[in-house]
Each structure stands twice: as C-alpha cells, then as structure tokens.
C-alpha cells in the first residue's frame, strides 16, 4: 500500500455502495492522502471540507446522480 501523505487533496475517487463509500484521495503529485471507507453521511461532511478546485470522480450509476445532487448542495461540485 502507498504511504499516506498530509499534502492538500487534489483528486478524490469514490466507489459508491449502500452502506459504505470507499474513498481514495491523492495530492497533485498523485501521492495517496487518504484511503478509507466512510458512511455516506460522513462522506458528505468530509466533502464539505475539501479545498476549492478538488476533482471528484465516481462511478456512473443511478446512485451517483443522488450523490452528485447532494454534493452540489454542499458547493463541492461545479457545473
């Protein structure tokens, strides 16, 4: 497993499921900053603290539309 750094998060990948979201965040150099499972509510609270300009990627599924709408309400996603 990659070493976890404390650099600012630049990109986040999330695997959606019903009970836990698997989150993988990296800095601008691609070094792992965070790799853990979170409940959906904890994930949304965590996303509210992400830096401006952070890219978030998730799978394309029916649940992704719901997650995207909630993230837009937080101001975490643009356009």
Quickly give the structural class: alpha+beta
- Main sheet: which strands, in order across? 3-2-1-4
- The Rg value, from CA coordinates, equals 12 Å
CATH fold title: Nucleotidyltransferase, domain 5
Shape: globular
Number of helices: 2
Overall average pLDDT: 87
CATH architecture: 2-Layer Sandwich
Please write the string of helix (H) and strand (E) elements.
EEEHEH
Largest beta sheet, briefly?
Answer: 4 strands, mixed
What distance lies between the first and last C-alpha atoms, to the nearest angstrom?
Answer: 34 Å
Number of strands: 4
Helix content: 25-40%
- The total tally of domains equals 1
Low-confidence spans: none
**Assigned CATH class:** Alpha Beta
The fraction of residues assigned to DSSP E strands is: 25-35%
Characterize the structure shown.
With 79 residues, the protein is α+β, with helices and mostly antiparallel strands. It has a single domain, classed as Nucleotidyltransferase, domain 5. 27% of the residues lie in helices and 28% in strands. It has helices at residues 40-47, 62-74, and strands at residues 11-15, 21-26, 32-38, 55-58. It has a four-stranded mixed beta sheet. It starts with 10 loop residues before the first strand and ends in a 5-residue tail after the last helix.
What's the topology here?
Elements: E1 11-15, E2 21-26, E3 32-38, H1 40-47, E4 55-58, H2 62-74
């Amino acid at each position: 497993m990659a070493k976890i750094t404390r650099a600012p998060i630049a990109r986040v990948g999330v695997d959606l499921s019903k009970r836990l979201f698997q989150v993988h965040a990296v800095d601008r150099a691609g070094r792992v900053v965070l790799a853990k499972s979170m409940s959906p509510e904890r994930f949304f609270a965590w996303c509210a603290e992400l830096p401006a300009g952070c890219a978030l990627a998730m799978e394309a599924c029916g649940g992704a539309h719901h997650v995207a709408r909630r993230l837009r309400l937080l101001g975490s996603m643009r356009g």
